[in-house]
Amino acid sequence: YQNAMSLDQSLELAHNNLGAYYFRKGDYEKALDEYNLGLAIDPTRSSTWGYRSSLLTYWGRFDECLELANAALSDNPQAWYAYFGRGVCKYDSGKYTEAIKDFKTYLSKKPNDSFALPKLGYAYGYRADAYFEAGNYSAAVPDYEKSVSLVKDSAHFYCYLSAAYLETHKYKKAIEYYTEGEYARAGWLWHPWTTCRRRTGYGQHITD
User: Fold this and answer.
1) Which of 43, 96, 164, 202 is most buried, judged by most C-beta within 10 A?
2) How far is CA 169 from the centre of its chain?
3) How far is residue 91's CA from residue 103's CA, in Å, rounded to a whole number?
4) Alpha carbon of 146 to those of 10, 108, 140, 196: distances in Å?
């Protein structure tokens, strides 16, 4: 990547990838520098916004994460790409409802972004988890449904969606999503699925 940038400093993707390399090495200052350089060249790349936001929140710099995204929006209210960066800040701090709003705003402008769509799916799923743990199964169901429509391989969300339907006495739906989860589980270790079945307590009931 450094070779590539010595030939062309405008290669924002090279800055993005070099930032990821430094992040994995634990050199967060250099990673941040690379992400900032990438965004200076192309501020519309969602992956760079996402990686920089994740780096800052991983580092515990939540306020700075939000400030950078808010500053971009203050300078240009049409800076739709900054909504994704702010959404990641909120997602990583557990503010899933606020994150969902920002992700949806971003996706209204770039609806097929393969980097952003799974983030929205996980935000719905984790908000659904909170509803499920609180016993609010009817609120969990629509969020889980949105999640599995965006994150096709998450056995966890399929399992809890099935369990939420079971809790609301919709047994056909429970079996349907249990079966879908079995397919999603194919690429997973057994442990997450087994743990989910045990935690939700419906393993013995799903075939009744």
Assistant:
1) 164
2) 30
3) 10
4) 38, 16, 10, 19
User: Which amino acid makes up residue 143?
Assistant: D
Residue 198: Cβ within 10 Å count: 10
pLDDT at position 200: 60
Rounded distance, CA 203 to CA 195, Å? Answer: 10
Say whether pTM exceeds 0.90.
no
- Contact, 45 vs 14, CB < 8 A? no
Q: What is the pLDDT of residues 166-189, one digit of tens each?
A: 889 898 898 888 878 776 665 544
The tokens 């899933």 sit on which residue?
Answer: 96
Contacts 24+ apart (CB under 8 A), 137-143: 137/164, 137/167, 137/168, 138/168, 140/164, 141/165, 141/168
What angle, 0 to 180 degrees and rounded to 10, lies between the N-to-C axes of helices 171-184 and 155-167?
Answer: 170
Give residue-wise pLDDT tens across range 99-112. 999 999 999 998 99
Residue with tokens 């809890």: 160
DSSP states of 43-54 as a string? Answer: TT-HHHHHHHHH
Q: Which of 119, 85, 87, 80 is nearest to 101 (CA)?
A: 87
